[in-house]
Amino acid sequence: xxxxxxxxxxxxxxxxxxxxxxxxxxxxxxxxxxxxxxxxxxxxxxxxxxxxxxxxxxxxxxxxxxxxxxxxxxxxxxxxxxxxxxxxxxxxxxxxxxxxxxxxxxxxxxxxxxxxxxxxxxxxxxxxxxxxxxxxxxxxxxxxxxxxxxxxxxxxxxxxxxxxxxxxxxxxxxxxxxxxxxxxxxxxxxxxxxxxxxxxxxxxxxxxxxxxxxxxxxxxxxxxxxxxxxxxxxxxxxxxxxxxxxxxxxxxxxxxxxxxxxxxxxxxxxxxxxxxxxxxxxxxxxxxxxxxxxxxxxxxxxxxxxxxxxxxxxxxx
Length: 317
Known about the structure:
Layout: H1 2-23, E1 39-43, E2 46-53, E3 63-68, H2 82-87, E4 90-95, H3 112-125, E5 132-137, H4 140-150, E6 155-161, H5 182-189, H6 191-194, H7 214-223, H8 230-240, H9 247-255, E7 260-265, H10 275-282, E8 287-291, H11 298-301, H12 303-315
Parallel strand pairs: 3-4, 3-5, 5-6, 6-7, 7-8
Antiparallel strand pairs: 1-2, 2-4
């Protein structure tokens, strides 16, 4: 009996050691860690990092855009698009989701209510006058969809880039990798294999002069890994946020008559292009722009095409 007990102790130590080793050296994010170009705003659940980009004084302001990033890559993914938007006359607000980038990482449930509440409170905190143009990338698509469906009167338009949420089925997520304790251990110990190591994109290189290629992308992405809570925010999102099938929300949004544009790469290996058929079914009056060679990373690998199409869409409203 004593040998069994000692054996269990050894196993626990062997399992715990790599978990705590991965936690060692991670710090709690503070305001002193955020870039001077942005700021924090205190919302109900904590401090969110945001940054404004505005047209110069000689440019007529046409409206305000709010950009909503995806699952794991924070707001730097918009870098190649910003100048196009501002020179075209749009004020642009970007932010990092809780748990990502330079926002705080509260230990809370990362569900639909959190993401919609955060976007709502951020917009209200900035005292934006009039309706906003919402742009959502990947997981940002369902977030934008939920928001516009709830607040159609505050939404001037919606743009979805490589959007999640158009799948006809929801994968079984109750595997051991997402179970309490076991899942937390797995995501912490094998975090390097889940993100941050090797290629983070389907496209090795883009000749778009505005693209964020691998040599710049990886350092920007890995910078957020210095802080506690990133890993936990991703796992909680997988557990509590529907990333796959929100077609009922999109269908409800269709009847709210909010103008909608979708840009989708035909070679998207993360959110399959086949979902575009559901987009066209749900939004018969929506506009679909298909990028022949586009993969899931079109936001930061093909920003010239993406930016031009979005500006053309907004200017037509």
